[in-house]
Amino acid sequence: MTDESVISMNRRSLFKMIGAFAGSAVMYQAMSELGFAGESGYTGRIELQGDPQGASVLILGAGVAGMSAALELRNAGYQVQVLEYNDRPGGRSWSLYGGDTYTELGGFTQKAQFAPGLYLNPGPWRIPHHHLGMLDYCKRLKVPLEPFVQVNYAAYMHSSKAFGGKPQRYREVHADFNGHVAELLAKAANKSQLDQSVTREDREILLEAMREWGALDKNYEYKKGLLTSERRGYISDPGGGLTSDPVPSEPLAFGDLMQSRLWSSLSAGHLYEFQNMIFQPVGGMGMIGRAFGRELGNLIQYNAKVTEIKQDERGVTVAYRDSNTGGPVQHAQAQYCICTIPASILSQIPMSVGAPMKKAIDALYYESAIKVGLQFKRRFWEQDESIYGGMSFTDLPNALIGYPSSRYFDDGPGVLLGAYTFGANSIQLAAMPPEERIKKTVEYGSQIHPQYPAEFQHGVAVAWHRVPWTLGCAAHWTDEARAQHYDNLCAMDGRIVLAGEHASRLGGWQEGALLSSLDAVRRVHQRALAA
Amino acid sequence: MKPRIDILLKLIVVAALLAAGSRALQAQEIFAGGYTQQSGEDLYKGICQGCHMPEAKGAIGAGAYPALANNIRLIAAIYPVTVVLNGQRAMPPFGASLSDTQIANVINYIRAHFGNHYNDPVSVSAVKAARR
């Protein structure tokens, strides 16, 4: 099978699953799939040769896209100015630390009271090993990275409607799913039911493979025993001395496993984007924004709310006011403009661009997503359940529980990602006041970890539809919208070019924002040299 | 998400409620992966106020969510019907996830509350006809 057909099968089967089950965990996978695309187009550090002769570029937005553009253009000799709505660099590349205050639309204010060193990443939280651009910028900006655990065999798969609501370990579901499927396939092969599609020689190899892959016994059966417990775990692990006998565990029955739908969360970790290795900045994703911000210093003007973007044959003029106090309208001017303002915001800003770009901007709404960080008195998931990093999946509205991939074995408190939800569940959670979202998240999590109520200390809930500067987490692209508008969104209109995750095929990923920015920078540079 | 799946999910949730009857599962009725609310008020509070805010007062940040309170643009029901069905700029479409009845109910609620006094409720069949 070619890579292409693997990809298309993957998509097909995924959409089929969405159609069939539409659970939160599946929705999560579907959202993950939205960002699915080929490997990063990063081809190494950008080289801008030629003298721009003091040409100026105004950059709107100090997120990953805006700040990478500012960095490269400054280094190439451009006069650069960045306008940013927030009072900090980073945009969606962001962490909430203890002491931080966050006010969402509607005026609901939360003060994060996480212990020192603990945080919630409301936006991106992982960098795949093939997101070469992000990894290179982290290296250049000296942002230390550490492994992010995606798949954890000790974490849970939970359905409130299966196995009496008792969470199953990933390793159990994984081993049993593979084992049962291997047994079925081996049976079919032995009964010569595959003869038309498999040669006799291949059938022998297939049987051998199924035995190894599924932990089947000599009769090609998947059943209780030490062989299968080596995969799914034991009732009592092998030990030493006189009490060393392992006690094997009982596999889940095939029918129960199928009907539980727990298998639907197995494929998440198979996605290219979620395969090992994955990285995270030490100390939170916010470290990337801080590093860029340090590098750019006073090139960034914070608390600047853009109110109008105009251009003529000589340059671009942007009107802005103080984000917090309003105040008088000020103007910034440059020969070129790289605009990284999310389309959801940009569609409301008067802007002198042609109809094709305007229609493309107007065609994008931003997805709903919610993340809830919960601080607990102790790391009970490690201490009681041997879960170090990774995530558990559930059909409850919180969709997943993410365990911190850092500070293992710490005696102090720890912060879990208590909810990471897209779609209808997140829209309904967003409609609640933050404290209610947190209460619900604790309620759901208690069904998976009964330690929750006794250990819970503090929570912060970020609902992306209420984030004042994005109105959602990432641009929603359909295939039809891409065909109609994507090229128009990305094409330079006069002296203005857009960048950001919305102007990429790696939607919702920092790498997409970065690559779109570098592509915009190259085009602006070409124009400036030709001028 | 297709409306049919919502119905399937509702059935599953109802069955689970009957079987378990626990408080935790009642929360799931709200969160069946779709929208189970039927009355205009429940739909507004469960969905719309996430962006348009409690009391429909809207919100302003770098961009804005329009206030639906005292909103003259609601004078013709077909306008909000079209926006809810198809979305508009930052507003996501809800045509695939809400039924004609749900959409009629929530629009009739909004047009008769929050300082709006439009006395010509939109019919379910009018919503159905507005789908394209």
CATH topology of the largest domain in chain A: FAD/NAD(P)-binding domain
- Identify the CATH homologous superfamily of the largest domain in chain B: Cytochrome c-like domain
Helix content of chain B: 40-55%
Strand arrangement within the widest β-sheet of chain B reads: 1-2
Give the tally of β-strands of chain B: 2
CATH fourth-tier homologous superfamily of the largest domain in chain A: FAD/NAD(P)-binding domain
Structural class by secondary-structure content of chain A: alpha+beta
At CATH level 3, the topology of the largest domain in chain B is Cytochrome Bc1 Complex, Chain D, domain 2
Q: Structural class, from helix and strand content of chain B?
A: mainly alpha
Give the C-level CATH assignment of the largest domain in chain A.
Alpha Beta
Q: Strand fraction band of chain A?
A: 15-25%
Commentary on this structure:
The complex is a heterodimer of chains A (531) and B (132). Chain A has 531 residues and is α+β, with helices and mostly antiparallel strands. In chain A, 35% of the residues lie in helices and 20% in strands. Chain A folds into three domains: 49-89 and 289-363 and 476-530, FAD/NAD(P)-binding domain; 96-127 and 149-154 and 367-466, Polyamine Oxidase, Chain A, domain 2; 169-260, de novo design (two linked rop proteins) (Up-down Bundle). Chain A is built from 17 helices and 24 strands. In chain A, the strands form eight sheets. A five-stranded parallel beta sheet of chain A has the order 14-2-1-18-24, covered by helices on one side. Chain A is globular and about 80 Å long. By secondary structure, chain B is mainly alpha-helical. Chain B has two domains: 1-36; 37-130, Orthogonal Bundle (Cytochrome Bc1 Complex, Chain D, domain 2), CATH 1.10.760.10. Helices cover 51% and strands 3% of the residues of chain B. Chain B has helices at residues 3-20, 23-30, 40-52, 78-86, 100-111, 124-130; strands spanning 59-60, 64-65. Chains A and B meet through helix 13 and helix 14 of A and helix 1, helix 2, helix 3, strand 1 and strand 2 of B.
